[in-house]
Amino acid sequence: MPTALLSVYDKTGVADLARSLADLGWSLVSSGGTAKAIDDAGIAVTDVVEWTGVPAILGHRVVTLHPKVHGGILADPTNAEHRADMDAFGITAIDLVVGNLYPFASAPGIELIDIGGPAMVRAAAKNHAFVGVVVDPADYDGVVAELTADGALGDATRRRLARNAFAHTAEYDAAIVTWLDESDEPPTAYDEVLPESIYLSLERAQPLRYGENPHQAGARYRQVGATSWWDSMTQHGGKELSYLNVFDTEAAWRLVQRFDAPAVVVVKHANPCGVAVSNDIGAAYIDANACDPVSAFGGVVAANRTVTVEMAEPLSAVFTEVVIAPDFEPAALELLTAKKNVRVMSAGAPSPLPFDVRPVDGGLLVQQPDEVVGRSDAWQVVTKAVPSHQQWRDLEFAWTVCAAVSSNAIVYVKDGQAFGIGAGQQNRLDSARIAADRSAGRASGGACASDAFFPFRDGLDAVAEAGISAVIQPGGSVRDEEVIAAADEHGIAMVFTSQRHFRH
Question: Is 347 helix (H, G, I), strand (E, B) or coil?
Answer without folding.
Answer: coil
